[in-house]
Amino acid sequence: MSDHEQLESQIDQWRGYVQRRRAISAGDVEEMEDHLREQVTDLTSTGLDDDEAFLVSVKRMGNLDEVSREFAREHSDRLWKQLVLVPERADGGTNPWRELGVVLALAIGAGIAVKAGIELIDDETAIMRNVGLLVLPFLAGYFAWKRKLTWQVAAALLIPFALLAVVLNVYPFEPMGSTEFLAASHAIVALWALVSVAYAGGRWRSDARRMDYVRFTGELAIYYVLLALGGGVLIGLTVGTLALVGVDFEPVLEAWILPFAVPGALIVAAWLVEAKQNVVENIAPVLTRVFTPLTIVMLLVFLGAFSTAGGLLDVDRELLILMDAVLVLVLSLLLYSISARDALAPPGLFDVLQVVLVIAALAVDAVALTAMLTRIAEFGFSANKVAALGLNLVLLVHLAWSAWLSVGFLRGARTFGPVERWQTRYLPAYAVWAVIVVVVFPPVFAFA
Amino acid sequence: MHIDKDLVAASATPLVLGILADGESYGYAILKRVNELSGGRMQWTDGMLYPLLHRLERLGYVQATWGTSEAGRRRKHYAITRAGREALAERQAQWSVVADALKQVWQDVQMPPTVAEGWA
């Protein structure tokens, strides 16, 4: 009997090996396995033992590379992995249409929340402060449903959410003040960090889950842009066509379609990213490969311009914000290529390029910062300047330490593990900084 | 005897269609029938049969259905269609032309059998 067990394990191994071929579908594997088993049975009945029969049968099946190529020739479509949004057979026993129902309900819910917010709050800046609070709970709700979040985690999410909501709406912000704008923009970052807890199903301390969330964020941004482009085309066609028959579509568009489509698309994009996880190659790492060398060129041009122009002429907070944007770009390029990198692969040319990129960014930032600091010393601090400087500092620490670790990796002094871990361990610093800007800045700068 | 790859490929479609014209069958049984017909001299690479069957299915020459084997495993059965029978008749006509021509050539050349075998 143990003999047959060995045969079964051999067949299991073979099946696993065949299943890895993309051109060979699950049905084909089943068909070939039936063939293999018949062959083994026939051979053992002629006197071969299981082992010999298995070897002969596998040999007769032919070279798997050639067979798989033949399958690929017949089914070239299979190499283009197809995205199945609603699977035909539910594996877990749940109705596959249920998820679509939940997603659409949440998308419409987010739309209703935004629409109600616009109708009830007759103050544009108040809506700006609250837009994250109105939309992101629905995204978190999707993950809470999908990951079957426990009540404890849900409660742990609701408390900081409620506190943020209170702070954003109770603080007596001065109209059109910069602290209000800073609080509104940084609240979204803080809320995004809360969504990550729901995304990770409560296991937000796990490095792997954090990296998954980074990947998710990148893919979500790309899907959202694609959905927005598609939606823009549809809206353009509708407006143009209706204008020809004398119908002014714009009031409907502004009052109804955009308040529902913009937040709804976010939920739908999140669902698409979840659904495609195993099907489509991630696009964000591909983009980093294209843009890393180009960004290096851009940074070198900056450096050249700074040194030949004989100093920066108009140094104000816009320069700081620009520098923050440059560092965020470099950081995303770094994060997304790390997210797709095989931690066990030896250092390659691209790793060198990445270190060059980070060092160039640090150099550009250093030049801008020294110019900036003298100006701040002259004119004093404002909320905007401190916020931009603080973000710059948070980014600087992240990138400088990444560069240090990467250089060590390139020189063979350490493995890639620490480089990867540093990225995910540092992420909470951004959430902490965002919370500081939302909660501490307004009172310190007198809500101006 | 080793039979040239191109010859195997060219004869595979009419052979499979011909076997299926006798009645519905499945992969392993088709290969066993090929073995019997050729007296064990035609050895196909077993795995290659399935892409071929799928191609015939796509062309509409055969129809596949999932059934169950005696052992209770899922098994795909193939049956020839009307288009398949028409294609088989056409292939048969083509092959008889080729076979006739070859037969005449063999008669004219009168090669020693060992050399002829090596040629094939």
From TrEMBL, chain A:
Claim: Ribonucleoprotein is one of the keywords in the record: no
Top-rank lineage group of the source organism: Bacteria
Keyword Transmembrane: yes
Regions crossing the membrane: 97-114, 126-145, 151-171, 183-201, 221-245, 252-273, 293-313, 320-340, 352-374, 386-407, 427-447
Keyword annotations of the record: Membrane, Transmembrane, Transmembrane helix
InterPro entries documented for this protein: Perm_prefix_1
Protein known as: DUF4153 domain-containing protein
Taxonomy of the source species: Bacteria, Bacillati, Actinomycetota, Actinomycetes, Micrococcales
Automatic annotation (TrEMBL), chain B:
Matches recorded under Gene3D superfamilies: Winged helix-like DNA-binding domain superfamily/Winged helix DNA-binding domain
Domain Transcription regulator PadR N-terminal, chain residue ranges per copy: 16-90
Stated name of the protein: PadR family transcriptional regulator
Highest taxon of source: Bacteria
Pfam family, one: PadR
Organism name: Promicromonospora soli
